[in-house]
């Protein structure tokens, strides 16, 4: 079984066990709607695998559909696990320590945020940039798969999964309400994750609705992690790699103010991305592919002698 599907299965089994053994519940109707929406994609995947008339096109489409299916399924099961663990383990908040770490680095989050609110045009653009990460990921997966960079797309998917699970685990053990709450800013009352995070910790929220899923982890910043991963994954795309590098740099810069992240959250997210990319398994798989390509390239030379 490919590792990405093994990860999805492991997280789904964990969800099932926790739902059976705790008071948390899953809103079945929206969950079934998500699964139903995936059925046409699964059917199209089978058609692409069996249709031989245009092998190059159908092969790439099949890879793309499989990647999208894995992406949606993992995001769903990981969100359920994040929801349950946030309410199941309401450990002491780390906000004071994170804010102190910012100060120790000479970084003043509140001054930065107040400056941004005095420049509404810049604030609006920062919000747009911050919210572009999801669409960017989809565009990047489509571009990689349809242009034949399947190995890079698969590695990107694995980086997303591994870093997502790591973020979930770290965030569960070091929970934080975020800078909006810590500095008592009015925006906290209109920020979706703040109320959901608080309701889970005080036990008033026990039913998970996938259409209302929120990012509940402040430290490390998963936005920063994904921005680095996107920039790195885009390297094979000659036309897109530099624009996406610039976009992801802006996403990282906008994350403290738009996501209520402390500066150390951003630093931790970048470090997590670097560690994920450098995992031995990815390096070894790349070396194996390089040796395989060298063997294939040498074969015709020897055959011609």
Could you walk me through the main structural features you see in this protein, from its secondary elements to its overall organization?
- Mean pLDDT is 88; it is low at 283-305.
- Helix 2 (28-50) packs antiparallel against helix 3, helix 8 runs antiparallel to helix 11 and helix 11 packs antiparallel against helix 12 (241-259).
- Strands 1-2 form a two-stranded parallel ribbon.
- The chain contains 14 helices and 2 strands, in the order H-E-H-H-H-H-H-H-H-H-H-E-H-H-H-H.
- The protein is mainly α.
- The chain is globular and about 60 Å long.
- The chain has helices at 3-21, 28-50, 55-88, 95-104, 109-117, 120-131, 133-146, 150-173, 179-182, 192-202, 222-233, 241-259, 263-277, 280-303; strands at residues 25-26, 207-208.
Low-confidence segments: 283-305
Helix vs. strand class: mainly alpha
What characterizes the major β-sheet? 2 strands, parallel
Q: Between the first and last Cα atoms, what is the distance in angstroms?
A: 41 Å
The helix content, as a percent range, equals over 70%
Total helical segments: 14
Strand order across the largest sheet: 1-2
Q: H/E element string?
A: HEHHHHHHHHHEHHHH
Strand content: under 5%
**Average pLDDT over all residues:** 88
SSE topology:
Elements: H1 3-21, E1 25-26, H2 28-50, H3 55-88, H4 95-104, H5 109-117, H6 120-131, H7 133-146, H8 150-173, H9 179-182, H10 192-202, E2 207-208, H11 222-233, H12 241-259, H13 263-277, H14 280-303
Parallel strand pairs: 1-2
Helix pairs in contact: 1-3, 2-3, 3-7, 3-8, 3-10, 6-12, 7-8, 7-11, 8-11, 8-13, 11-12, 11-13
């Amino acid at each position: 079984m490919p590792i990405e599907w093994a990860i999805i299965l492991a997280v789904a089994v964990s969800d099932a066990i926790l739902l059976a053994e705790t008071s948390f519940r899953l809103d079945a109707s929206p969950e079934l709607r998500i699964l139903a929406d995936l059925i046409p994609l699964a059917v199209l995947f089978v058609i692409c695998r069996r249709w031989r008339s245009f092998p190059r096109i159908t092969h790439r489409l099949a890879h793309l559909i499989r990647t999208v299916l894995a992406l949606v399924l993992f995001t769903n099961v990981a969100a359920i696990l994040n929801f349950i663990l946030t309410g199941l383990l309401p450990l002491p908040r780390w906000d004071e320590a994170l804010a102190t770490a910012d100060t120790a680095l000479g970084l003043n989050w509140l001054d930065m945020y107040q400056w941004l609110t005095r420049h509404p045009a810049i604030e609006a653009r920062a919000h747009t940039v911050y919210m572009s990460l999801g669409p960017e990921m989809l565009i990047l997966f489509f571009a990689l798969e349809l242009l034949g960079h399947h190995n890079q797309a698969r590695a990107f998917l694995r980086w997303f999964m591994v870093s997502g699970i790591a973020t979930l685990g770290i965030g569960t053990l070091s929970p934080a309400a975020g800078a909006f709450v810590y500095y008592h800013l009015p925006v906290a009352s209109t920020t979706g994750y703040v109320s959901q995070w608080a309701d889970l910790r005080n036990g008033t929220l026990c039913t998970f609705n996938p259409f209302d899923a929120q990012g509940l982890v402040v430290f490390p910043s998963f936005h920063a992690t994904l921005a680095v991963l996107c920039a790195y994954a885009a390297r094979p795309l000659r036309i897109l790699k530099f624009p996406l590098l610039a976009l992801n740099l802006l996403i990282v810069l906008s994350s403290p103010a738009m996501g209520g992240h402390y500066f150390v959250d951003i630093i931790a997210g970048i470090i997590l991305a670097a560690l994920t990319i450098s995992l031995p398994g990815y390096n070894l798989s790349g070396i194996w592919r390089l040796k395989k390509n060298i063997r294939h390239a040498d074969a015709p030379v020897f055959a011609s002698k």
